[in-house]
Amino acid sequence: MSTAMIATERDRDRNPDVAEPDDSDLRVLVGDTPLKIVDVAHAPTGYRGDVSAERQLAVWHDAGVADPERKRLRIDMHTHSEYSPDSRTPLTEQLKALLAAKIDVVCATDHNTIEGGLRLQEIARDQLRVIVGEEVSSRDGEIIGLFLEKPIPRDLSAEETIARIKEQGGVVSVPHPFSRNRLYHIRRSALERVWQQIDCIEIFNAREAFAADNRRAEAFAKERNIPGAVASDAHRVSEIGRAWLEIDDFADKASFIASLRTGQVNGRLTGSAIHLATRYDVFRKWLGRRRTKSRA
Q: Most buried of 8, 41, 166, 221 (most Cβ within 10 A)?
């Protein structure tokens, strides 16, 4: 029987109220303070959007499945750096922030390139594990490939993008599948076509403007028994540490995917204003390129 709890960050050092499940596998107590609680029946991530994300840190954990003898790791499964057109985060600053947030494993997933991940891997060395990845712009929307050795071309179909990832033994993750504040999430029709070929799906993305979009992804994953991924989707240093999944240590890709199933979700929404900051960063990078060309 699983036990879950939710408490405010301010009060998390105290003993939060705990819900003991009855008919359901998991029940979660949700409230602005441990003294103001609402019982919510279904919340595998332990997060509900009707509670302020800024004030809440929600976790769930299936103690009957996770191995207590194995080391637990914090993993952020979707991040960006200066190698993405919409981020100006230097790799050195990204590394510092990841270490400060006590992230053990990071998936470097810049847009349509693996160069940032390869470079971060070199810089990080033994300070943290870097999984080289890419957020690929397929014709059907964005798809993430992890454990990549070669870049995946953009503008392929979802099926071909997934095939290219798997050809090199990569892991397929679908980011922010039901996002209402982004233009390039995977199309629902494509997701329905390929869901049996994907390895994991983001059930918590800190950049979602609407918490309900994370819940829709969570429900989709649960209905189809797809492992859940958790991501800060950080484009700026200030976003690093907003979300991570606590998982068992893993030795290979198979045990990596298995570890996602017993993960403990931790996340806070960043807030919709961050998308305005991203547009500013895109403009600054564009302006910088124009100035460079004019001097050439």
A: 221
